[in-house]
Specification:
heterodimer, A: mainly beta, six-stranded mixed sheet, four-stranded antiparallel sheet, about 55% strand, globular, B: about 110 residues, mainly beta, about 50% strand
Chain lengths: ~120, ~110
């Protein structure tokens, strides 16, 4: 079994300021790691994923995340926030041993608020 | 266009009246899942399916049923809906776990 903790329920940042959304996970098996974004009144969109290899992964819209195994963390960052980044962000894990067939375990989400 | 289609998008029903939320994907994906989203709780998995006729419970299966008779369809059935099943529901599918999942647009269900 695995679990995901998103340390902040909401993060306010000023436009053009850097963004960091924090995520820690726990699992007894190896996992795939994902970040999904949900814009208001829409479904979920895959932002980026870590499968293996380079621990720094780049996603869409200028976001990136770094996998730190020793810290069991997968924090999401962006150098400069835009108003269009305002959304709910979910850190997600999937059981690698099962090939991801049994679906995803979600964190509770972080609401990113962009202030002008 | 590759997509996961859920219907209906919005549904208001009364307690105890059986309903079905349909989910269809056109990507030939083997894996499909249902989730419910509630404020402060994030998304929780209801049921998942690894292939035709293969389904299993997720974290919150009580009060729900699913079937997977064809690869493309994965309907969610509420035999006797109750107000605590009022929620936003998402269907998702994946070719393989390392591809990530593609989500439908959601079904907002209200049970009164």
């Amino acid at each position: 079994a695995q679990s995901v903790t998103q340390l902040d329920s909401q993060v306010p940042v000023f436009e053009e300021a850097p963004v960091e959304l924090r995520c820690n996970y726990s699992s007894s098996v190896s996992v795939y790691l994902f970040w999904y974004v949900q814009y208001p009144n829409q479904g979920l969109q895959l932002l980026l994923k870590y499968l293996s290899g380079s621990t720094l992964v780049k996603g869409i819209n200028g976001f990136e995340a770094e996998f730190k195994k020793s810290e069991t963390s997968f924090h999401l960052t962006k150098p400069s926030a835009h108003m269009s980044d305002a959304a709910e962000y979910f850190c997600v894990v999937s059981d690698r041993s099962g090939g991801g067939a049994d679906g995803l375990t979600f964190g509770k989400g972080t609401h990113l608020i962009i202030q002008p | 266009e590759a997509q996961v289609t859920q219907n209906p998008r919005y549904l208001i029903t009364v307690t105890g009246k059986k309903l079905t939320v349909t989910c269809s994907q056109n990507m030939n994906h083997e894996y499909m899942s249902w989730y419910r989203q509630d404020p402060g709780l994030g998304l929780r998995q209801i049921y998942y399916s690894m292939n035709v006729e293969v389904t299993d419970k997720g974290d919150v299966p009580e009060g729900y049923k699913v079937s997977r008779k064809e690869k493309r369809n994965f309907p969610l059935i509420l035999e006797s809906p109750s107000p605590n099943q009022t929620s936003l529901y998402f269907c998702a599918s994946s070719l393989a776990g390392n591809y990530g999942y593609t989500f439908g647009s959601g079904t907002r269900l209200t049970v009164v």
